[in-house]
Specification:
This protein has six helices and no strands. By secondary structure, it is mainly alpha-helical. The N and C termini lie far apart (78 Å). It binds heme C.
């Protein structure tokens, strides 16, 4: 009986990922770097809403560094941040629908047809 309770407790705890109440970030290795470096200009929700692979995350960081005054990171810190982001906020494949079959696509001249209709 005691083992069963322990087992249920383990399942319950592991099913509830540990989320930091202040930032909404998942507490996992590297999360404090993201808390420290990524909350100064916008809410951490900007991050938790985003899902991307490592390369795309790096692209966003480079874009912010190039245009938004985001500071440079040491290679170690950058790797930690990218590991954290790509592990905890990976692309959401399951939410992407399959492409439409060609038969269901609008005709290529649809926009033009609509323009004509509107000017008539
Ligand atoms: C120096 C300021 C600054 C810091 C620090 C900063 N960002 Fe940003 N970030 C911005 C600005 C400005 C935008 C654009 C906001 C908007 O579009 O409203 C942005 C946008 C974003 C977006 C949305 C991009 C999109 O395409 O929609 C994400 C995701 C993001 N930041 C993640 C991060 C991460 C991760 C970090 C830490 C590594 C970080 N930010 C740190 C300034 C910053």
């Amino acid at each position: 009986m005691r083992i069963l309770i322990l087992l249920l407790l383990t399942v319950f705890v592991s099913a509830h990922a540990d989320i930091d109440a202040a930032t909404g970030l998942t507490k996992a290795p590297g999360w404090e770097q993201v808390r420290i470096h990524c909350g100064g200009c916008h809410s951490h929700a900007m991050i938790t809403q985003q899902h991307a692979d490592r390369e795309t995350w790096l692209g966003m960081i480079r874009w912010m560094q190039a245009t938004q005054n985001l500071w440079q990171f040491t290679p170690e810190v950058e790797a930690e941040i990218l590991d954290y982001l790509s592990t905890n906020y990976p692309p959401r494949q399951e939410l992407r629908r399959a492409p439409l079959p060609a038969a269901l696509m609008p005709p290529e001249n649809l926009a033009q047809q609509q323009k004509q209709e509107m000017s008539e």
